Amino acid sequence: MLDVRRLRLLRELSLRGTIAAVAQALAFTPSAVSQQLSVLEREAGVPLLERTGRRVVLTPAGRNLVRHAEAVLERLERAAAELADSRRGLAGPLRIGTFPSATRPVVLPALAGLAERHPGLEPMVREIVPAEVGGALRTGELDVALVHEYDFVPVPEEPGLAAQPLYEEPMFLAEDETAAPVTEAEAGRLGALLGRRREAPWITSAPGTLCHTMTVRACQAAGFTPRVRHQVDDFAAVLDLVAAGQGVALVPLLGAAGGAAAGPPSSVTLTGLPLRRRTLLAHRGGAARHPAVSAAVAAFRAAVPEATAGG
């Protein structure tokens, strides 16, 4: 009989590539992971792994077993959801992942809704970078997570996960008050709107983030590579830099609002662009009908800001 816990290890190895990475993600020692995978190979009766330098590659039999493991783990999530549904009332921890610009305008009102409708739940919020969301959901560190994507940077499909659209918001070019007004011919044309600032210094998020990649790709689509002066992840600080004449930036609607009623600095001009940022709610595959996950989905849908509702 194949052990489900060992199947999880094999699935994570297929995604992370090294035993050390699996051990770190699951809080095991590398030797413990190796031992459990060796036991799984004996249970399977065929080689599942091949070593190539520091990496471990799955054999064809190993890859096939991972496909079956995905189906088994999804069925277990569905079973857990049905069992939870049979209990009376929702209680216990609900681990929520989010990104900074969604915390104040979306997560906080969602928490208020959950507290009102399901007082037995204990929401636990964690801000997390998108690259870590998949692993955190699969290992149970998170139950649901807000993730985002841009027109030029779609979210790749993650094995073992499912996601559903939550809301989308427009993108803006943020400039200071000295910027020349947008002409009628430039309005609504990405290449024209960004191309007029090809010589300006740009403010982006840190390299490796979706926001940074989005800015670079949008500018490249307009025919140039941005000359980056500042790299700042906080949109409120980005707008302050723009107001100080330090450069121009691309910001989404919720980033432009800064999560506060005051909005951006009065000296910042925001020009709408034909670009969108979409936010999705992700969870483990098979968990969509879990009562706690369903409650979280309903609370987040009710909390979507009016400015973004309906796109």
Automatic annotation (TrEMBL):
GO MF annotations, alphabetized: DNA binding; DNA-binding transcription factor activity
InterPro entries reported in the protein's UniProt record: LysR_HTH_N, LysR_subst-bd, WH-like_DNA-bd_sf, WH_DNA-bd_sf
Coiled coil: none
Domain spans labelled HTH lysR-type: 2-59
GO cellular component: protein-DNA complex
Keyword Amino-acid biosynthesis: no
Keywords: DNA-binding, Transcription, Transcription regulation
Cross-referenced Gene3D superfamilies: Periplasmic binding protein-like II (3.40.190.10), Winged helix-like DNA-binding domain superfamily/Winged helix DNA-binding domain (1.10.10.10)
Membership in a protein family: Belongs to the LysR transcriptional regulatory family.
Record-given protein name: DNA-binding transcriptional regulator, LysR family
Natural source organism: Streptomyces aidingensis
